[in-house]
Specification:
Blueprint: H1 4-27, H2 31-39, H3 42-49, H4 59-69
Length: about 80
């Protein structure tokens, strides 16, 4: 039986993957660049730490939030 901690890790990884894919699609950039942008963002830190119910939010919404609130990462 899988424990709750393992399930949370899998869910978090899937959320991160979905955010990276959404950023790539929305901005028309390759996945590697979207990956680098995501992992250098404040959003990545928030997802890692959890809290604020961020783990329950839609990946596309989070990607839009990243694009809107951290435009300097896309320059």
């Amino acid at each position: 039986m899988t424990d709750k901690k393992q399930l949370e890790e899998v869910y978090k990884q899937n959320l991160e993957d979905d955010i990276i894919n959404a950023v790539s699609e929305m901005k028309g950039i390759d996945l590697r660049k979207a990956f680098d942008i995501y992992y250098s963002s404040r959003l990545a830190e928030q997802v890692e730490k959890g809290g604020y119910g961020i783990e329950n939010m839609d990946a596309k919404y989070l990607a839009e939030d990243l694009i809107e609130n951290e435009p300097e990462l896309f320059e």
